[in-house]
Amino acid sequence: MSAHKITALVTGASAGLGTEFCRQLADRCDVIIAVARRGDRLVALREELAGRAELHAVEADLTSVEGVARAMEALRQQGPVDYLVNNAGFMPYGNFADIDIQSQRAMVSLHADATITLCRAAIPFMRERGSGFIINVSSIGAFLPSQGLAVYGATKAFLNFYSLALQDELAGTGIVVQALCPGYMHTEFHAAMEEKGFDKKRVPAHMWMTAPEVVTASLAGLGSGRVLVVPGEGNVALARGGLQRQLDAL
Ligand SMILES: NC(=O)c1ccc[n+]([C@@H]2O[C@H](COP(=O)([O-])OP(=O)(O)OC[C@H]3O[C@@H](n4cnc5c(N)ncnc54)[C@H](OP(=O)(O)O)[C@@H]3O)[C@@H](O)[C@H]2O)c1
User: Fold this and answer.
1) pLDDT of 112 strictly over 90
2) All domains of the chain in start order, with CATH
């Protein structure tokens, strides 16, 4: 019987946080299944990580049924996985009634449908092995219902609720579930928003974190027993303030 290869599947691996997850998981894994639409980026990452981990590039649009099926097929062929990182995400910029419904529905598909589908595929194997790590990349926006975040924040609140309940359901199985809730992070995430007028400079410098800082906090948090991981003390205070506002609205 061949030795088990420690394997990770990371969605949104072509940029930002996802690329950094692949870099740091290369220290823990033999095989990384990297999923995104920009295949050329994944090939470049495969070259960068050569000698550290075997990277399988899966070009797929996870807002589509076909794209999710492609990721599932890779999971079937290269898996089972020890780490599942549901990270791919984007945010259409603007208030709900001012932006097209298609992009908002696509965001729901990517953040919610693709995540639960990949979890459903991975968990039976993790349960059988008695171990596994699931990281669902949420956002501090999940705690802060506010202008411009109606659907984005709701999808991230979904991920928090889902991850907390899932961890309860999986208690005693050896599977660890985390909802990672970053605040502002320097990645490509805001590029499309900047084209529509968002000015990164209006956010104070101390509120920004880097992808390496956030991934380090996430991986360190896997052993903490904490499902909701909010990197950065200032962000924890913001999240608590957002939750208090929701309580006050009762
Ligand atoms: N940056 C922040 O300030 C911030 C804060 C809180 C939470 N987050 C969350 O962090 C996660 C990662 O974002 P990031 O900051 O790293 O942004 P990013 O640099 O823009 O990267 C987003 C990644 O998602 C992938 N992606 C987007 N749409 C996709 C689709 N339809 N199918 C497959 N992959 C898709 C992109 O790949 P392709 O374009 O190649 O498909 C890319 O790899 C997201 O879930 C985001 O909501 C970010």
Assistant:
1) yes
2) 7-248 (3.40.50.720)
